[in-house]
Structures are given as structure tokens and as C-alpha cells.
Design goal:
Layout: H1 2-17, E1 33-40, E2 49-56, E3 62-69, E4 73-82, E5 85-90, E6 94-96, E7 101-103, E8 109-114, E9 124-130, E10 134-142, H2 145-148
The chain binds copper (II) ion.
Residues 77, 88, 110, 112, 152 line the site of copper (II) ion.
């Protein structure tokens, strides 16, 4: 915490020297943006669904701490290969580097959705919870069948 506090004046200085946004809407550019959100409903009832997000980092680094999906329990997961076996592990947070890009995809980072009831209109509202930015809302749409693959 102390370390982070020490950096505040530096960050403030960077803000002063950076070009000012032309409009008030520029303030929204400070937050990470969800550039893609796609979900796959459970193929068998009782099995979890999965959500993949693409996130473009804002001008400052942030961390994705959680994803909230109404009516489902969402967990941040990572698929890792251990001794030739693919296993999933829950991850506490996902770093979003400043100006970076995070792309979740099958076989890597994903959001597991337990107890998901697929929305009848195909639009799944999700909320991303970032450490610094707070909540960012997005709407996920069903994945194209070809891109869904057979494992998450
Ligand atoms: Cu998983």
C-alpha cells in the first residue's frame, strides 16, 4: 500500500503532462474497455457455461477482480497444462496492463459460469469488477459454433 501511495504524485504528474481530452467524454477513455464478450451456454444441463472477454487496457494498469453475471456464479479461471493434462484453476485477479490487451480464449483464461440459464434473447448482461475502475458493464452474445471448440 505504501508503495502504491508513493507513486500517486508521479501518476498525477503524468496526467498533467499528457494531452487533455478534447471533450468530457474523454474521461471514459480512462477505463479499460470490453472489446468483445462471448458466452457459451452449457451443452448439457447442470454443466457450467463459459464466458470469454477481450479487454483493452486504459492509460493506467488495472486488475480484473471478478465478473458478475445475474443468476449465475462466475469464476475467473485459467486452463493450464500440468504433466500433459489440461486442468483449470481459479485465478484471483487478472492484470490488465496500461494500453495492453487481454484476450480470453479456449485453452487459456476464461470465466466459468455456474448455474447459468441462457438468456432467451441471446444477450447476457455482465459486469466486470476492476480494482481501480470499479464496475464496467458489457453485454455478451453467444459464441459462434465454430469458435466454441470442444473444451473451454
Ligand atoms: Cu473453467
Amino acid at each position: 500500500m505504501t508503495f502504491r501511495d508513493c507513486r500517486v504524485p508521479l501518476a498525477a504528474l503524468a496526467l498533467l503532462t499528457a494531452p487533455l481530452p478534447a471533450t468530457a467524454a474523454g474521461a471514459a477513455d480512462a477505463a479499460p474497455k470490453v472489446t468483445a464478450a462471448a458466452f457459451r451456454a452449457p451443452t448439457v444441463p447442470g454443466r457450467p457455461g463459459v464466458l470469454y472477454l477481450s479487454i483493452a487496457g486504459g492509460p493506467k494498469p488495472d486488475r480484473l477482480l471478478a465478473v458478475e453475471v445475474k443468476g449465475a456464479r462466475a469464476e475467473l479461471h485459467e486452463t493450464r497444462e500440468t504433466a500433459g493434462i489440461m486442468r483449470m484453476a481459479a485465478v484471483k485477479a487478472i492484470a490488465i496492463p496500461a494500453g495492453g490487451k487481454l484476450e480470453m480464449r479456449p485453452g487459456g483464461l476464461h470465466v466459468m459460469l455456474f448455474g447459468l440459464t441462457p438468456p432467451s434473447d441471446g444477450k447476457l448482461p455482465v459486469a466486470l469488477v476492476f480494482e481501480k475502475t470499479g464496475r464496467v458493464a458489457a453485454t455478451a452474445t453467444p459464441m459462434a459454433a465454430a469458435a466454441a471448440g470442444h473444451v473451454h
